[in-house]
Amino acid sequence: MKHPEFYRGKEVVVLGLAKSGVQVAKVMHNAGALVTVNDKKEREECPEASEIEALGISVVCGGHPEGLIHQGVSLLVKNPGIPYHVPPVLKAQELGIPVVTEVEVAYHLCSAPMIGITGSNGKTTTTTWVGKLLEAAGMSPIVAGNIGTPLCEAAQEASEHNWMVVELSSFQLKGTEEYRPRIACLLNVAETHLDYHGSMDDYVASKAKLFSNQTTEDTAVLNWDDPVCRSLVPYIKAHILPFSMNESLREGVHVVPPYLPGVEDELSRMVVYTDSKGFSHEIIPVDKIALPGQFNVANALASCAIAIAAGANISALAGPLTDFRGVEHRLEFVKDIDGVSYYNNSKATNSKATNMALTSFTRPIVLIAGGLDRGSSYEELVPSLKGRVKSVVLLGETKEKIAKAAELAGLKQIVLVDNDEDAAAALTAAVKKAAELADQGDIVLLSPACASWDMFSSYAVRGRIFKEAVHNL
């Protein structure tokens, strides 16, 4: 797409209300476009409609009318979660009308250099961490995007003196054309969201769009331990700054001595940045990083690489790495009850995220898992379940599939919770059952390995119900 001012006097359709849709509609309306907002939900389910109608923006609720998309429409901006097979999107593509997400609109508005962060797991933690690192370095970050504040809203507030730190999903990136972050980071790639993308090829291609418009003046931060990330190297024009847990890098942020995959030990390790001239700079001992788990060490490495690429002083990095206690629903400590520790990891919406959580603890685990069925077998969980998990409590569409994985791992205590009626009551019952199965010194961990939408409106709702159930034990 072009700058919003290009659309003055032209018809623009915004598909989907919610926060981002409202902000996009306002931006395009203020630029002089003739904006129509369409949402398939009924009017009473769209509380935002009255607000934007008062501005003179047309709102159509309750379905997608036949003539919504026509030859006179110049642009379609869709909510990232709306699939590409819905009729308005298909019609726009048929007519050659650009179909973009809010990210593309915000990019053309934003005066600040952008940092784009994506990956299957760890996006929110890394984005938040980068914001804290840049703040400690006095670099005036604004954290926005998939993490909370709509990007269009934040972009209008930013100046060239800020850094815009943006968490990005594959859904958002798929709808970009010219988006070019000054620094782009791909944390990792796991099999997920295939119900939306249809294939891993489309999912990876959507993630890779983060780098497609970068030039040699930009920086690409890549996980050197992830084979999919490394496979993108030939297609990236930007300067590549890798991070690694498992390799000593000639340039990049890495762990010294490196971790050996599959080997657990108690060696003292240091996070080190090796610059382009080969000089090494110690950042922080690994055991001083506040968040538990090797995957959070990887998130810390990525965060440091991004901050260094942005120009942060290396001496400013240790403080936020030591002080940061994480974000809600990401391996979040909830409470100790009778010697049992309860953790909320509701954001673990795929098997890889749950595997990473399970390997973060040495104490026996009672795992609560299950959720939306996206076609996975969950056999990927078997190695982590063995020897770490003493029992599982399962609910949601995938409970039988995960039960089979638990059986393959040799678990004897497998409990299936009935969730046919009330989702909150089912999760509360799961927490009570997990508490019964746990002994002093154990951990009860909610780490579903699945999206929430079969039972809950979001992983956040699921996590908060879990926490409430724990506090009510």
TrEMBL record:
This protein's UniProt keywords: ATP-binding, Cell cycle, Cell division, Cell shape, Cell wall biogenesis/degradation, Cytoplasm, Ligase, Nucleotide-binding, Peptidoglycan synthesis
The record places domain Mur ligase central at 117-307
Bilayer-crossing residues are none
> Which Gene Ontology cellular component terms are annotated?
cytoplasm
Q: In this protein, which residues make up the domain named Mur ligase C-terminal? A: 329-450
Reaction equation(s) it catalyzes: UDP-N-acetyl-alpha-D-muramoyl-L-alanine + D-glutamate + ATP = UDP-N-acetyl-alpha-D-muramoyl-L-alanyl-D-glutamate + ADP + phosphate + H(+)
InterPro entries recorded for this chain?
Mur-like_cat_sf, Mur_ligase_C, Mur_ligase_C_dom_sf, Mur_ligase_cen, MurD
Query: Where does the protein end up?
Result: Cytoplasm
Coarse class of the protein's main subcellular location: cytoplasm
Q: Name one GO biological process term.
A: regulation of cell shape
Listed GO molecular functions? ATP binding; UDP-N-acetylmuramoylalanine-D-glutamate ligase activity
Which residues bind ATP per the record? 119-125
Tell me any Pfam family this protein matches: MurD-like_N
* EC identifiers of the protein: 6.3.2.9
Pathway assignment reads: Cell wall biogenesis; peptidoglycan biosynthesis
State its role.
Answer: Cell wall formation. Catalyzes the addition of glutamate to the nucleotide precursor UDP-N-acetylmuramoyl-L-alanine (UMA).
**Which family is this protein grouped under?**
Belongs to the MurCDEF family.
Record-given protein name: UDP-N-acetylmuramoylalanine--D-glutamate ligase
Q: What species is this protein from?
A: Paenibacillus uliginis N3/975
